[in-house]
Amino acid sequence: MSEKAIITFQIHQEASVFLGNENTVTESSDFGQIWGHFFEMGGYEPIFPYAVDTKPVNIWCINEQGERIYFQGLFVQNVDKVPEGYKLARFPAGDFLVVTTEWMETNDEAVGDDGNGRVNRYAETVAMPEGYVRNDGPVTAIEKENADTPDGSRYEVWVPIRKVTESGK
């Protein structure tokens, strides 16, 4: 298995509605426990009827209380009843620098250290496109798992970006 090249490209995400499981995270958070709880409560199944895209998404953001949030779920529309234990959230439109890899043969490879791990590490220090800076929030990153598509599988990390203003900020 050869190491796949890291790729970056820009996208614009329209304002969106997200349905999922909200977790407040700290330095001592146990992600095995977070994921275990998510699947115990039903995982993606209760969300699928409302999904606009069934590819799993994790949104990292800062809430109004300044807490770091890890939100597991899907982008949705026309939610008439929020499933028990889940939360519906709205996120503003924004621009993102997507950090990913070339398509991989298996999803296990994409979500493993050669995919997810490398992409997350690279996203921490990736150079911003000319005329853009990192956008400081409230969304701090979006992760998207593209599993078993006709092209293969890959993991994406979306880094929020914004155009530099005339004052340079």
Can you describe what's shown?
The chain contains 3 helices and 9 strands. By secondary structure, it is of the alpha+beta class. The longest helix has 13 residues, at 113-125. The N and C termini lie far apart (43 Å).
Which geometry do the CA atoms define?
A: globular
What portion of residues is helical? 10-25%
Mind describing the biggest β-sheet?
9 strands, antiparallel
Secondary-structure-derived class: alpha+beta
- Write the element-wise H/E pattern from the N-terminal end onward: EEHEEEEHHEEE
- The counted number of beta strands is 9
Round the Cα radius of gyration to an integer and report it: 16 Å
Q: Between the first and last Cα atoms, what is the distance in angstroms?
A: 43 Å
- Mean pLDDT across all residues, rounded? 94
Query: What is the oligomer described by this structure?
Result: single chain
> How much strand content do the residues show?
35-45%
Task: Tally the helices.
Answer: 3
Poorly predicted runs are none
